Amino acid sequence: MADRDLVVAESPVGVLVGVALAKGARRLEKSVGMVSAGEDDAIHQVRVSCRRLRSDLKLFRKLLAGDWAPELRADLAALAQACGEARDLEVIAALVRENTTSEDNEEHVDTILTALTLGLDRAAARSAEVVLGETTKDLLTTIESIAAGPDLNPKADRPCGEVLPELLESATAKFTQEAHKLKPWSADDHWHEVRLLAKRVRYAADTSAAVLGEEAKATAAQAATYQELLGQHQDHCAAADALTSMAADAAAQDDPELSFTLGRLTERHRAARKPLREQFLSLYHRP
């Protein structure tokens, strides 16, 4: 079955597992083609495709038999990680451009952006080599083969209408549990973990929406809003960390003026976290 619209509430949930994996394989194959064609945002789309597949495997984990799922999740994680540095540097460079002001030393800013761009180009080349390699081709073949007949346990015979609300509630409950703990002063890593959980809820709701309808779509939209805010927060955290490392390198090379500029930029990104945290908490705790 190639069309998720053919999966209904009465369908065995195992059918949706295969359909979701097949769709994920097509999404990943398309993004690999984008890399081959040199399209913009291609590396990022490969990363997103891997994450969505991993999310589906986690959503359905209690329905899966055998040891194929952990192995597949590990292979997808490795491919996503191979794309991570390039995407992170792309985001950081864009943020640095957006957040510089006339008060910043223009020569220093050019030096910083040149270093980031050079790192991005090298990372993108490494990512493309992995994405277009034989290992990725084998991975796509494996996913397509599994999707045609995944090894499932008897729980997968239950109807979608019974199982999906339970699975989605489990993902939502974990997000709620951790989001409730967030405070304005919580560590960056805790905010990042809640972001990942929001993304998991969004993907789970997207996968369930063909059967659960408007309620799942609303859950996905709300999770996407949370993910967007927390994603911006994470981007500023990553930028601050990268600039801090560059400042240390500049200081080690006895370039205190460049180190000073990097320090100013770092503090600007750290300061950008506060309004994003306040906005998330206000939205999350809204009655």
UniProtKB/TrEMBL annotation:
Q: Which residues form the signal peptide?
A: none
Superkingdom of the organism of origin: Bacteria
One Pfam family per UniProt? CHAD
Which InterPro entries would you find in this protein's record? CHAD_dom, CHAD_dom_sf
- Residue limits of the CHAD domain? 10-287
Q: Give the protein's recorded name.
A: CHAD domain-containing protein
